[in-house]
Amino acid sequence: MKLQSFINGNWIDGTGETVELMSPVTGEKIAEYSSDGYDVKSMYEYARNVGGKNLRELTFHERGRMLKSLAQHLMEKKKEFYPLSFQTGATKIDSWIDIEGGISTIFTYASKSRRELPDEKIWVEGKMEALSKHGTFVGQHVCVPLQGVALHINAYNFPIWGMLEKLGPTLIAGMPAVIKPAPVSSHLAEKMVRVIIESKILPEGSMQLILGEPGDLLDHLGNQDVVTFTGSAETGHKLKSHPNIIKNSVRFNLEADSLNCSILAPDVKPEMDEFKLFVKEVVNEMTAKAGQKCTAIRRAIVPKHLMNEVIDAMKERLAKVKIGDPNDENTRMGSLAGSRYVELVNQKIKLMKESLEVVYEGGEKFDENLAFVNPLLFKCDNPNECSVPHEVEAFGPVSTVMPYENIDEAIKLANMGQGSLVASLFTVDNEIAKQFVLGSGSYHGRIMIMNRDSAKESTGHGSPLPHLTHGGPGRAGGGEEMGGLRGILKYMQRIALQGHPTTLSYVCNQYINGAKQIIDIVHPFKKHFDELKIGETYITHRRTVTETDVVNFAGISGDFFYAHMDDVAAKESMFEKRVAHGYFVLSAAAGLFVDPSPGPVMANYGLEELRFIRPVYIGDTIQAKLTCKQKTAKETKEGMVPQGVVEWYVEVVNQNNEAVAVYSILTLVKRKNSKV
To answer: Is residue 255 annotated as part of the catalytic site, yes or no?
Structure first.
């Protein structure tokens, strides 16, 4: 099979020397490619001028719907990827994590973008900042897409998940991507890109693929571009220090392999579920992907008095792991990705054997031309003095068990890894959990606290999730990926806008407090979604709050709090006299602004950011101001009435025009136009 790069909208062959990809499982040739002869500069220009322009014409919701369609398409095609994944040495469960885990990440970003971002091209971040006494000069943070290209340099161990977990937030942000897969698993990455391109779901120029090792890959990047790298810290630091990266301040996100740890807390006893869960998790992380995981557990930190029990339990589980061809359903651990990686792992194992004691090493014999290895478990009796398990990582099925005397020492040992992607703690003692997070949290990008209560639904120590950040400090690279909306910001520029509220409202297409309001004689609840304008405001008539209102509301709600009902207690309180219920104020305000007759408004969708600013006393007169803040059209599914969500900014004032309550309400409103 001849692999091709996808550049400038075309599948092309390289012109240089052919590189052959060999199966680590059978030793047979599975593909070949050439990486010479590519015009990297024109590839980037095509991405910026064609792909970037096309993506920026879409709103966040349009990009989200695009990703949803892509994820559905990939899920329909998933069976095509498994045979190629087996050729990388991955078992069925390894492949499932890579393939369907990657597609699920796309689904997550498709969903989060439509639920948590506006149907706009600008992301309004946070609240308005008041910068002047009279409110005519304000500030607002917004985010817009970078007008460059995102170069994703991916690791060999997860050729699909690693690609898609970067691609999702990149496309949602509105940036085109260039995918640079690791050579050893590039046949699987190329297949995924082919399926994506053939679907024609993405706009032209959104995605390109370059194979091999083009020497000028970093030479043509500028200040609007982003580089993400997953792999060894050594290679990552070399790329990050490239003169052009430094010169142009190119954003560089580094996620490196790290010496992750798992801690068995001092409260756990051998007969407890947490003991068994700990042993199972360490062994699973040793053998999943044959230990070729950036999140694998390299250091198992256990109470000193439980060392023998833990090691014996791990040895028992490791002895049951069947190693072999991933096509065999009984196989539980496949091969490394290639013979080169066997050599690297063996080099590190040799170094570790000089200082550590081997307590388990599988005895199976394998063809030296293939990439199978035996799992290896070390013991380190003096982890405070021996630096090897905290500094040397064998990127394979290798882990080290080490003892501690108390939780403070366990924290110290966890931190000696100098920064990791993930640590896990097995405990039923919440105080220990809190102590560990406070003592070790700054050294890890993620901490999984595991016990019997969460075990059933836990995704495990080694499973990064798109909702949460994936990255870590120090040795782990200091970068972050995914993290829900946080991941999208990696590909956007934050801008601090300053100006008059009316101007900023127009720029953001979202009402900002203090902007000019639009008054219409037609009640806004009589208007369809399409007819409403941002800033359109309805000012209600007034209502005086009576003692009867307060008493009746108390009877209906069951809220007889003293400040509402007891003259003497209220007089001695901070209010100095009886006040109306806050929720009565909201109810009364709704009665003031709601139009009772049937119309385009279908339902109240929710209430957000409620603040009671001042008390409302018996005898006060209130009035409501209802302003259209933001509009978001919803997808029209078959049989559904076209509709959208309108967010209204509500301000309730008293007779002195002082705000007593502010909040936002969401309403479902019918649309005339059924197209989204």
So the answer is: yes
